[in-house]
Amino acid sequence: MSFFRRRTDTPPVDPAQAAAPSVDPAGLTPDQVAWIRARALATLTENGVEAIADDNGVDLVADGHRMPLDNALAKCRAANPDDWSAIVEQHFGALARQAAQPGVDQLTGDQLASQVRTRLVHIDDLRVPIDPSTVIDMTEYALPVADDLAAVLCIDFPETVTYLNSERARSLDLPALYTHGQANTDAEPLDEVFTTDEGRIAVGYGSSLFVASKALNMPALLHRIFGSTDTPHGVVFATPNRNEVLLHRISADNSITAIGSLASLAAARFDGAVGAVSPNIYFWHQGTYLRISTADPVEKSISITPGPQLESILADLS
For residue 66, what are the CA distances in angstroms to 40, 52, 81? Predict the structure, then answer.
């Protein structure tokens, strides 16, 4: 199904030819948002899609379908103004070209197996609004991970990623797709692995949208990060956004301090992130996931509740 009305006439003159304004250190100014919005509209037009700005000023609408500016604004806010045009053109050009892609319903079994990915999401994100009348609902088939996290399935196209909705999932072999999806997610690259907090916290980072989702297969992730799956006392981890995962292997060496540092780092990395997942931290041990913190981004507060199992492990190591 096409999401956009495509134009065949000559596109109008680019309304955003002027150079992008300098970055306001406090965030984006109204002029900067207006420039990004104009560049997005021009990019869509150049790719044959007729769109208008919504009255709210932060969404674009094409043929009744809504395209939020949020991701593009966040990427521009974190980048040099010289790169803003390229960021906006890549993002909205990909959205326009998505209309010409085959839909999920048109993929063969082999194509689904190679393009499916598991994705870790917050339970509040199991219903994704596309426009006022369309919602991708994944609540029916999502697998619970922790009390506020779930695993869902995405289809990875060359330039865009589409969630698999529950209606389509009913006709598919979900166990097989989750198996294929996790193998594909495990194979996604990590661009960088490093440590922080005096070596107590390991960070895996990548441009892939599925880095955080690697935590769904913790043994594979541990082997990738540490070179070993040897974690007799478990690991505390965080997935603040889709592009990174933070881990601390429980040991006798200042684990309590490291857990506190990890909680603060996760909350900070979640705040304002593109593709935010969760500000909380989690304890993984012998295949079980448990949320052990509650971060309130509004109140800027964090409470840590290790639970009986982790408390016992930490007491034995002290």
Answer: 13, 10, 26
